[in-house]
Amino acid sequence: MTWHPRQLAQQTGRTFVVTGANSGIGLETARDLVSRGATVVMAVRDVDRGEQARAQLSGPGTAVVAELDLADLDSVATFAKRFAESDDSLNALVCNAGVMGGPLALTAQGFERQMGTNHLGHAALVTALWPQLHAAGGRVVLVSSIAARGGRLSATTTRDQLVAPSPYIGQVVYSSSKQANLLFAQELHRRAGKAGSPVSVVACHPGVSQSELFARQLRERRLGVLVPVAKAVSKLALQSSEAGALPTLRALDHSTPSGAFVGPSALGQFRGKPELLDVYRTGSDPATAERLWVLTEEILGTPLPV
Ligand SMILES: NC(=O)c1ccc[n+]([C@@H]2O[C@H](COP(=O)([O-])OP(=O)(O)OC[C@H]3O[C@@H](n4cnc5c(N)ncnc54)[C@H](OP(=O)(O)O)[C@@H]3O)[C@@H](O)[C@H]2O)c1
User: Fold this and answer.
1) How confident is the model over 105-110, as a mean pLDDT?
2) In CATH terms, is domain 5-208+242-299 a member of 3.40.50.10190?
3) What's the whole-model pTM score?
4) Cβ(70) to ligand 1 under 6 A?
């Protein structure tokens, strides 16, 4: 059924955390929520750039910038501690931040950076903010990708394959990290339901949208000179970042049930209005989801929330 952003109600009095809210799809998500009266915590790794992004947003809601580096589990813990000091409840956590490709790099704890940021950092954040999500009967939204279809995680994936993949093939690891977002969403939804938790979980993907994701990859490969050309081509070929944020907004709408997967359906899911989609085969296997859950607990050294 077609969904329109006007279906998402006013959000006055509700609090949202959006990771990676200084750029691209996260910024457009924050912009929309603030325009609906929400309080949005823009969780960003560079506070100065976060403040520049915040200055672009206008009320009636409010946005605050808070430091969060998902590639450092100590930063995740500090962010969650500060949030808990100021807020008892959280209506929604949007796990949006992401890195794609680039040369092999490691997180502060020595894990491969894409899996460390896109999956492990977010899994740690969901766990740390679970009490506030529980108090509000809140929602977790995980922003995945059509790249998840090419993910290689399976029911026999090992710890090293997850956090120290060898050989390192950047695009494959990105796909697996986005597969992990989908698997984690499915498993969290299943477990929350079984435990009678009031927290709901929805996954989404933005199609292929203009943002800094592709430009950053070029810069990291020292091909920054190509960024203006890539941006010009993107502007012609890809949907806007506002359109890319619509699946996230639909995922936040309470008419979207827990366990759903939202994304555009036109042109091989590259663009279009946000629809309820079938979860990709790579993201729906319960045995793989269970394996990822166990490995994630082992790597983080802490039980996941439910
Ligand atoms: N654009 C697309 O076509 C597309 C397609 C499929 C999926 N996605 C997904 O959509 C999400 C948003 O990406 P986007 O396209 O909007 O790209 P973007 O403009 O590059 O935004 C990514 C955001 O993630 C943040 N980030 C990266 N590493 C981080 C870290 N360690 N800690 C905290 N924040 C970090 C970035 O912060 P900095 O600005 O500091 O780097 C930025 O704010 C990602 O999960 C991506 O995988 C995008």
Assistant:
1) 98
2) no
3) 0.96
4) yes
